[in-house]
Design goal:
By secondary structure, this protein is an alpha/beta fold. It contains eight helices and six strands.
Length: 298
């Protein structure tokens, strides 16, 4: 199997892969509750594995996955209060939005400095962070040469699990469990799913997790690989057509871009809002209360 994982490649392999297809994949996710049946790293495991399969099929290099993502504040805290409940340890690897998105700016600086023509950013973590990621890419694109595209992995999973024209996203339900089962079977154990009559929440397990199916997951993976292959072609063609200059090269360049372009817009990012779910309060004695309120970062 051809190696596409940046961290596992030798310099000559990286140079050949770059010459053949100067595109880089960035995969994002985190460790968070995904029911008793899934490894907690599902989001990043899923995004990274899909990126690797797409790169093997269509070309490109896959950057080391980022397992630190947005959680524990605003709407994410409200969701956790409802779907995870009071737990001693949630096993989260979480960052606030301003840290996560600034890190991405530095990731893109690396792509720009190395001369990649295109970058696809895939997040396996849901909630509104993927909308903010698209906003971030739109803000940055005029200031870099590398052609950018970002998406939550479910965008590539069309027409969705039920073949009904809807997106295939859920949380630790039949879609995510089926996908992880297809990609990393050692990270799924459906025997851990509790009996149907046992009340939850079960560490944020999706209500339809019992319908998970590895073969359906394999079909969804194939759909996503095709989708990403088409996006890669579009981005590389756009670069060849436009021949843009690569300008985001130094740390100072990133800090300037952050302060003048991204930070002024940050207050309007969806993940910077205290509420985006129907529940609008968290009890003060809740484990999710301390970081719930989003500080003013304007």
């Amino acid at each position: 199997m051809r190696e596409v994982r940046w961290e596992r490649m030798f310099p000559d392999e990286l140079e050949r892969a770059f010459a053949a297809c100067p595109l880089v994949y960035f995969a994002y996710g985190l460790c968070e509750p995904h029911g008793p049946q899934n490894a907690v790293g599902l989001d990043a495991l899923k995004a990274h594995a899909i990126a690797c399969q797409a790169a093997r099929a269509h070309g490109g290099i896959v950057a080391p996955p980022d397992y630190w993502h947005i959680h524990e504040l605003g709407g994410y805290a409200l969701w956790a209060q409802r779907s995870v409940g009071q737990v001693q340890r949630a096993w989260l690897t979480c960052f606030p939005p301003w840290q996560h998105f600034k890190n991405i700016c530095y990731h893109l600086r690396t792509a720009e400095a190395l001369g990649f023509h295109a970058a696809i950013l895939v997040t396996g973590h849901y909630g509104p962070n993927w909308q903010d990621l698209k906003t971030l890419v739109d803000l940055i694109q005029p200031h870099v040469g590398v052609r950018l595209y970002s998406l939550p992995d479910f965008e590539a999973n069309q027409p969705g699990f039920a073949n009904d024209g809807k997106s295939g996203g859920d949380h630790a339900g039949r879609v995510e469990t089926s996908l992880l089962w297809a990609l990393h079977p050692e990270c799924v154990d459906v025997s851990r799913i509790p009996p149907e009559d046992q009340p939850g929440p079960h560490f944020a397990m999706g209500a339809n997790a019992r319908l998970s199916d590895r073969r359906t997951g394999e079909r969804m993976v194939a759909d996503e690989i095709r989708y990403l292959g088409e996006k890669a072609k579009e981005l590389l063609a756009a670069y060849d057509r436009e021949r843009p200059r690569h300008t985001l090269r130094t740390y100072e360049d990133v800090e300037r871009l952050w302060e003048t372009v991204v930070r002024p817009a940050l207050k309007d990012f969806k993940t910077m809002q205290d509420t985006w779910t129907t529940q609008d309060t968290i009890p003060e004695d809740s484990v999710w209360y301390p970081n719930w309120r989003v500080p003013d970062r304007g």
